[in-house]
Amino acid sequence: MQTKAVLEGDQWVINGQKVWTSLAQWADWSFVICRTDPEGQSHKSLSYLLVPMRQAGIEIRPIVQMTGDSEFSEVFFEDARTDAANVVGDINGGWKVAMGTLAFERGASTLGQQLQFENELNIVVDIANENGAADDPVMRQRLADAWVGLRIMRFNTLRMLSNAIDGNELSREGMITKLYWATWHRNLGKLAMDVLGPASEIAAAAPYELTRLQRLFLFTRSDTIYAGTNQIQRNIIGERALGLPREPRP
Ligand SMILES: Cc1cc2nc3c(=O)[nH]c(=O)nc-3n(C[C@H](O)[C@H](O)[C@H](O)COP(=O)(O)OP(=O)(O)OC[C@H]3O[C@@H](n4cnc5c(N)ncnc54)[C@H](O)[C@@H]3O)c2cc1C
Fold first, then answer.
1. For the chain, which terminus, N or C, has the lower number of CB atoms within 10 Å?
2. Mean pLDDT, the chain, as a whole number?
């Protein structure tokens, strides 16, 4: 369902629905990309609005995920309101702003996340040393590959940021970042389960309390989906980084 906004006096009035809005139930503000030209169908009729989340016109329904958490929610807008000035960029020019936001989400914003990844990898290595999994040459190889992958991820992000220091736009390195980290992190989840072996099947507590590594495994299945799936990332790399012909548009 599309989200639409109409300007009434000095306020936008918003109606529609957003699915899978991360952290919505804790957010004070959200950005909402709304159709603001009722006649328009293309991306040229979208605007990027900043909307206060705590108001009567917004209903937030958390979705329970297979980790047992509710990290994201469905959000329903029924005559929700925001000030006319809360539009980022031009009216009907929201697509460009959305693409800039996504480029940041897929690229530079993940540098800090790499510390969490390192922390998770250290836990997996410690377990492998303790339970003997590290004695298996194949497992040792996979652990070493994970370590190498994390270093590559860091150097690529630093390379991307260094290039941006001179005021350049984020460069082509940025376009491989999401595909690379998402695949690496999903594989770390699988490695964690393999290192644990049969213990990976035992929950922390009844009825459904999972260990950190079980949650890591389950949540990382979504890493290759949100912020643009791996397939979409490959299209972006092909078309924008390598200049290959655009795929046919329906
Ligand atoms: C944990 C999580 C958090 C999320 N948080 C947010 C959020 O905060 N805000 C928000 O707006 N959204 C959020 N999303 C939604 C997310 O952005 C979308 O799920 C994602 O972009 C994929 O779009 P889709 O679900 O419509 O899949 P579709 O686009 O329908 O894709 C379905 C499948 O088809 C493939 N596919 C589609 N098009 C192509 C193509 N052109 N070429 C090749 N393959 C293709 C995809 O790779 C995928 O495998 C979240 C999703 C998850 C899982």
1. C
2. 93
